[in-house]
Amino acid sequence: MISELFRIGPLSVSPFGVMLVAALFAASLQLRWGLRRVGSSASRAADDAAALLLAGAVGGIVGGKAYYALLYGDWHLLYSRAGLVWYGGFVVGAAAVLLVIRRRRMPLWRSADATAPALALGYGVGRIGCLLVGDDYGVPTNLPWGMTFPEGPIPTVASALEREFGVVLPSDVAADALVAVHPTQIYETVAALLIFWFGRSLLARGTAPGGVALPVIGLLSLERFLVEFLRAKDDRFFGVLTLAQLIAIAILLVVASLWLHRRRAS
Length: 266
Prior knowledge:
By secondary structure, this protein is mainly alpha-helical. 62% of the residues lie in helices and 2% in strands.
């Protein structure tokens, strides 16, 4: 794993930071295209995309850090480099984006349709950064594609997995042994890129307002709900379910409710 690519004076540049920038750039290009597909002019699409991306990025970072600090009950974590939690970022970032849509008097559902595939693309690219720094991996596995992460926030050493995540390993596994785990970062990247492709195809084909945003957000929530069963997590406060899974269920219910409401209204 790579903890640092290079330094600029006192500033350390990590692969996660580089992939975060790449994710924002890819999302920006897709968002411009999406806004043009729903009727914006090229110049208006560029301006709106920049405003939406800035709101989403700032809101996402603030929300992701706040969620992380709340989860562990330590506000000092707001100032650490680690801890950008997806759902905290999604909720605050989405609220910021909706505020920009309202202030700029953009059509709500059409703007959401343009934004959703860009969200999936950015998420998929961003997960590559998690893989490169050895973060957000899964539980131990014997599958041939299992990976070890000797470095990172929490290396996949037997003692660390037991201490941090409550993983139960066979008694013959040495405390300092590296353990292969599910590369859930790769699973999420592949799933998110497939969801992006699906959403972009819907947008290119043309749908009723909301016909892209609702399926894409629903699929992203379903993906997160399923992958959480394989994640090495320490927040399984609800039996086998994590807090992220409960949020995913809530979002799926909201998406289903909105979908039915729009079907009945049409």
